[in-house]
Amino acid sequence: MPIIHIGYPKTASTWFQKAFYPHLKSPRYIGRDAIKAALADWNALDFDPAEFRKTLGLGKNEAGLISEEGLCGYLHNGGVGGMVSMVLAEQLKAAYPDARIVLFIRSQPSILVAAYAQYVRSGGTRSARRYFFPKDYLIGPNASTYKQPRFDVDFFHYSRLIDLYEGLFGKDKVHVFLFEQFAKGGVDFLRDYAERLGLDVDWDAVSVERKLKSYSFSLMQVARASNLLTARSVLDKSSVVHVPGWYDARRQILETVNRTGLFGGSPALEALVGKPTADWLRDHYVDDNRALAKSHGLPLAEHGYPMEKTGVADRLRPGRWRSILRF
After folding, report:
1. Residues whose CB falls within 8 Å of the CB of residue 313, separated by 6 or more in sequence, listed in order
2. What pairs with residue 3 in β-bridges?
3. SS3 state of residue 199
4. Strand order across the 3-7 sheet
């Protein structure tokens, strides 16, 4: 039966796709190009399970492994209020009814910072507060997720997606892993991971070296300024002019500078949005994390997942002038 690794984004999915899955002896790894082709002209109303399998090159009951973090929803639009996340889950069930599902989750304060860093890496120019809470800055149709999807902090209420897949495929077919355990455990984690999923791996070819270092707070600000010169590639951004070729050039410059380590490491959530808002965000995930830890026996408290509320009544809202300027 196939294994489908659906994400979440920012939980090392790309690392697995580039540095681990290609070294499987079995099952056969279906490269990311195939899933991109299968979803390139995706329309939920025209979905054909047989055509989907044909494009992927993986039979209905064939042993194989697929990995694409976008299958659980696109990072910068939160799965469009969960609609895309739900429909894709149902369609994966139709195409591969006996599949096993792999999900990696990550502490919300950490994944929020990583999501914003990815947004900036991809050309974003908005502040972190603007990125996390776009409805504070949008008016009319743009403020409706249904009409104009934007980032959604609720995307990281993990239990909802886990419950959805367990309801479709069965609890025994859904495997939930913690990004933090992988980051800390390295090869030891990977050996246990392979054993649980029945993967035959060429271990001599596997290296756990990280290829991409997170942006620091100061480098994020430099990146935001440089992104004003390109219209690519995220939707929710501003640009003063589009300089052809600058998107790729500025990416190479930023990554080269980032690898030097001169700008420091990844910032805490407080550095991006301030302590009151960071505390509010932590509180926002506590109930879901408690329920998930209890239902699945996951050691979330040991790995920085918010489990106790700070008691913040509400988060800070932008002043009127800041909301009008929309930054």
Report:
1. none
2. 65, 100
3. coil
4. 28-30, 64-67, 3-7, 100-105, 174-178
**In angstroms, what CA-CA distances link 256 with 122, 158, 237, 263?**
16, 34, 24, 12
> Rounded to whole angstroms, how far apart are CA atoms 239 and 232?
9
- Which range marks the domain in which residue 300 is found? 1-327
The number of domains in the chain is: 1
pLDDT recorded at residue 108: 98
DSSP strand pairing (3-7 vs 64-67): parallel
Q: What is the DSSP string of 254-290?
A: HHHHHHTTTT-SPPPHHHHH-HHHHHHHHHHHHHHHH
Distance separating alpha carbons of residues 290 and 58, to the nearest angstrom: 37
What are the backbone dihedrals phi and psi of residue 10, each rounded to the nearest 5 degrees, phi first?
65, 30
Say which DSSP state 213 is in: P
Residue 115 backbone zone (phi > 0: left; psi -120 to 50: alpha; other: beta): alpha
What are 42's two structure tokens?
A: 């995706």
Q: What is the CATH number of the domain that holds 322?
A: 3.40.50
Its pTM surpasses 0.90: yes
Tell me the one-letter amino acid at 234.
Answer: V
Write the pLDDT tens digit of every residue in 253-291: 999 999 888 888 899 999 999 999 999 999 999 999 999
**Contact by Cβ (8 Å): 101, 165:** yes
Block residue for tokens 């504070």: 136
| C-beta of residue 12 within 8 angstroms of C-beta of residue 208 | no
Contact present, 206 and 190 (Cβ < 8 Å): yes
pLDDT tens across 151-166, in order? 999 999 999 999 999 9
Q: Which of 268-272, 298-302, 309-313 is predicted with the least confidence, judged by mean pLDDT?
A: 309-313
